[in-house]
Amino acid sequence: MSYFKNMNKVTFEGPKSSNPFAFKYYNPEETINGKTMEELLRFSVAYWHTFVGDGSDPFGAGTMIREWDQYTGMDLAKARVEAAFELFEKLDVPFFCFHDVDIAPEGQNLRETYANLDDIVAMIKDYMKTSKTKLLWNTANMFTHPRWLHGAATSPNADVYAYAAAKVKKGLEIGKELGAENYVFWGGREGYETLLNTDMKQELDNLARFFHMAKDYAKEIGFDAQFLIEPKPKEPTKHQYDFDVATGLAFLQKYDLTDTFKFNVEANHATLAGHTFEHELRVARINGMLGSVDANQGDTLLGWDTDEFPTDLYATTLAMYEILKNGGLGTGGLNFDAKVKRGSFDQEDLFHAHIAGMDAFAIGAKVAQRLIEDGVLDSVVEDRYSSYTKGIGLEIVEGQTDFHQLEQYALELGEVGNKSGRQEKLKGIINQYLLEAYTGVYAS
Prior knowledge:
Blueprint: E1 31-32, E2 35-36, H1 37-41, E3 43-46, H2 47-52, H3 73-91, E4 95-99, H4 100-103, H5 110-129, E5 134-139, H6 158-178, E6 182-185, E7 191-192, H7 200-221, E8 226-229, E9 239-240, H8 245-254, E10 261-266, H9 267-272, H10 277-286, E11 290-294, H11 313-325, E12 334-336, H12 348-373, H13 376-384, H14 391-397, H15 403-411, H16 423-443
Parallel strand pairs: 3-4, 3-12, 4-5, 5-6, 6-8, 8-10, 10-11, 11-12
Antiparallel strand pairs: 1-2, 7-9
């Protein structure tokens, strides 16, 4: 059955195209720094928002019109697989991602849940035989069901901990079977509501034990995918242990897990943590821990995780600057952990949203590459820190000085002068590059 029968395959037609179902800037065959856009950007469709999300929010029922929703139970799960691979083909995306409960409903018990997963995984595997779309990553949902109300791997209930381990064990097996390139851990309820009833040390120790057991089991079954932690400061828990990249990195370092894990950085989670998207990417990159990206954006007027499709060209440019500086995303990708707005309820809106996001990151990639090639920001940074390339600055960097020597040096100084940071000038230059990119694309 076709669920998008009125839709043709989306292709690149260029910025002059008036076809709303065509890429204007994302040309999968165009090369950037030796890689095609498809190879560099590694776009992925998020199964949960795209095929499971119904548009409901805390104040209202679902609004989405989805032809597959005429079914229930396992019939619905199978219909979603059919719809998913049709959309993957028509968007021509190389990857997709899912939680276990996205693809198959939970049963009355864990054995029944396993059986449901086995049926759908077999179906997905059959579709993948004739599809170019691969599994970027999978994960276990351990935040929706009431059993997770106090956490999963940080739960005070050992039975819940064991249940979580069983879910992840199954998830790792599924990841191997479907050829996942990564496996994600998102601690939606791994945190606390109040310290009055929380043993934080035991919860963190238990979480580390959980990760080590996952690492050991993946090695046991020969699943060599990259493990990823996805930081988020809050929602649904008041305070989550994977608050941001820096907090997550400290955890991994303390518990000897840096050789196994990298980070899956989400734009909207960064803003919830009080950071910019590029800040979180930079912290991960300079520590060699940038693994993958959940590509979305938040609404600056709203204080929660709105998971909007990314259309802010300034943000996508600065994000791609970090990704290109990182040498790409390796086995990771740009996963659209994003949902159409509640008022955008037609099925065709799924195409409009993904096209807009893919075009936005394509523009960002082109502009970021030009900024790097021209050394625009590098030259500014080099000049700003040039005092550390000679004299006392070089001695500081090389560890050839101490407080005694620095004091003697400072006592001989006159008035200390600084250089302007020229932030406004730099932002104007980025705007110029963005506008020139438009001009260049149109001129071609």
